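Trying the structure run again after the queue cleared.
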Amino acid sequence: MKIAFVGIKRKYQEFDGPSYRDTFNKYHLELPFYYARDGHNDVVITTVDYESDVHIFATVEKGRVGSLQCIKEVDFQNPGWKYDVVIHWRKWFPEFYVPGAVNLINCQDHSFSPEWKNDVRTALSKGELTGILCFPTWHKRNLSEETGVPHERLFDGVTLGVDTQIYAPAALKDPYSMLWASDPGRGFVHALQLAIYLWKKDRQFRLHVCYPDYVKGEFIPKHPAIINHGCVKNGPELWGLFNSTGILPYTSTFKEPSSRAHRQAQAAASMVVYPIGMGSPSELIDNDKTGLIAQNDTALWGELILEYVKSGRWATIGDQARRMAISENWEVQALRFNKLIERIKE
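Done. Tokens:
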């Protein structure tokens, strides 16, 4: 299939060199890269200012080839190109509607402006928008409730993968090493309080902290329970933190459609602890099997982590989380997406 991802309004020329552009496509956008590599599709990404050579993904199996290419938006409507699928990035872009193709929105948000909802409803009523790609469980329900889009037009289970080749347990996983690898606005203060609580109980506990490049690091205090890695871009250093630490306490304070960090930690065979009732992850983590779900309370989480670390049960949960991550990794999601499009076109 030929798939176009449109409306990604990033200035690629502002990225820090070719390696960061590739990193952005692979680890931030995710879907185009893995739909090409693991779904064996020909995928293009429209940008406002950048075009690239075709990146070919070939496999040992005959005929299993995919490709990825960046093109400028002005070249999108090239009459010589025929798209099977057009995926609008996070909103509807009427200027990129392609008649005859399956037009979808990839939705990663949890609240929607009146303009967003009106554009979607209009595109649905005109028969231009086929449906919306979303995360399972809470996100799908919330999206339907907020926008009025029928459930049958919401397609889940094809956007939630993780690269289980990159995120995989190191030879030595340390359950006393915990990880915060996210924006501090997602509840870091509670993770900090938890780390100090655990450190007072057992001085082996440490919380490794890193964050994206748009975050300033002044929010991290100096304390023996905290190891500050600063800004860590997606790459070997970040993967090593996920793969070697044993616990991911994700103290989220609002309902999230998804969490990249918790999926990466599960793939790395870490024990994820997540608050109850905080969006899709709270429902996708199987409590006491692929992670722990509990009310966001410092003492409660602290005693749970102590119990699971001391008993060794954290490792059992990590192993089960790893198996679950493999069963839902990017290869599975990409091939499931292909089958979804086949079903839609029947």
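The mean pLDDT is 94. Worth checking whether this holds up in the mutant runs.
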